[in-house]
Amino acid sequence: MFYYSPGTFGQVLECWDREQKEFVAIKIIRSIKKYREAAMVEIDVLQLLGRYDRGGSRCVQLRNWFDYRNHICLVFEKLGPSLFDFLRKNSYRAFPVDLVREIGRQLLECVAFMHDMRLIHTDLKPENILFVSADYIKVPDYKGTPWSHRDRSFYKRLPKSSAIKVIDFGSTAYERPDHNYIVSTRHYRAPEVILGLGWSYPCDLWSVGCILVELCSGEALFQTHENLEHLAMMERVLGTLPSQMLNKVDRHAEKYVRRGRLDWPEGATSRESIKSVIKLPRLQNLVMQHVDHSAGDLIDLLQGLLRFDPSIRMTARDALRHPFFTRDQFRRL
Q1: Tell me: the pLDDT tens digits for 59-87?
Q2: Catalytically annotated residue among 53, 67, 98, 123
Q3: pTM check: above 0.85
C-alpha cells in the first residue's frame, strides 16, 4: 500500500487486492459528518450509474465500500492521471485539437448519460476526469523555440490512449426545481450559479466548455477567486451578460449589478483586478491562438456551451451532434 493522492475529503491509496489480484484505488473519507454524508451520496450515485453502465465505459467503477473506524472507504478500479495532472506534468502544454475532440466526445457522452438518469454532476473539472491508462509517449515540441535551442529536452507528452472516465460523484445532485446553493469549483462555475438564479443540468455544460478551452490552451479560462471579477472576465471573453439575467439576481448578487449592467470596472477591488480582465482575449482569438485546424467548428461548439442564458445553452446531446464531432466521423470514412 502507498500514498496516491491528497484531497480535502481525505486521501486516496493505491492498494493491491489480494483476492482479485489487481491494483485498486481506495478513497478514504475523513471522519467528519459532512464528508461521510457526501461519501454515502457518492456510493448511491455510483451504484445507480453502475446498474446502467455495466461496461463502466463512462464513469469510474465502484468495486466495493466499507466503514473502517468511522472512515468510509470506497474501492475503485485503478485509473491513470487526471487531465489536470497530465497538463501540469506536461508544463501546461495544450493538447492537440484531435485529442481534445476525443476527450470532449467521451466527456459529453458521460454528461448525457448522467442527465438521462436525472443526475447533475455539479463539479466537472480536469481534476475529476482521469485517463484510463497512465501510459504516454514523448514527441518533439519545438513550437516557438529558436532553432539554436532545439534539442532533445524540448518534447511534450501525449497519452497513448485518449480513453477517460469521470470521477468524484460526492457533489452529484438529483433533479429538483429549487437548486440555488453554490456548486462547482470556481473556475468552472456557471454565471447562473454566481448570480443566484438557480441551476440545473446546464451548469454541467458550462463546465464542459471551460474544460475544453483549458485543454486547447493549457490554462484555465477564468483564473480568479472573486465573483465580480469572474463575471467581468466572462463578459470580456464572451460578450455582455443578458440584462434579463442581471435584473433577476438574488440579494447576495445585487452588489455586482448597477443600473441593469455589471458594476465593472467601477466595482473592481483593485487596478490589478482590472488589468487581469483587460488582458483576456475574446473566445475566438483565444482558440485561434492554439488550434491549427477545426478552429471554426470548435469556436462554434464553445459558443453554444458557454451561452450565458442556461435556457438556451447547448445540451450534451446537442453538443454530440455538433460538426466539431460529426465532421471528424466523415474524415475517417
Answers
A1: 999 999 999 999 999 999 999 999 999 99
A2: 123
A3: yes
Any catalytic annotation for residue 44?
no
What pLDDT score does 7 carry? 60
Place of cell 463546465: 207
Work out whether strand 10-17 and strand 22-29 pair parallel, antiparallel, or are unpaired: antiparallel
- Mean pLDDT calculated for residue range 250-279: 94
The residue ranges of every structural domain in the chain are 2-77, 83-332
Cα angle at 208 between 206 and 214, to 5 degrees? 110
Question: Which three cell numbers, joined as nine digits, stand for 110?
Answer: 458521460
Mean pLDDT computed over 97-104: 97
The CATH architecture of the domain made up of 83-332 is Orthogonal Bundle (1.10)
Residue 121 vs residues 271, 316, 329: alpha-carbon distances, Å: 36, 13, 28
**Grid cell of 67 as nine digits:** 466503514
Domain 2-77: CATH class, spelled out: alpha beta
310 cis-preceded (ω within 30 degrees of 0): no
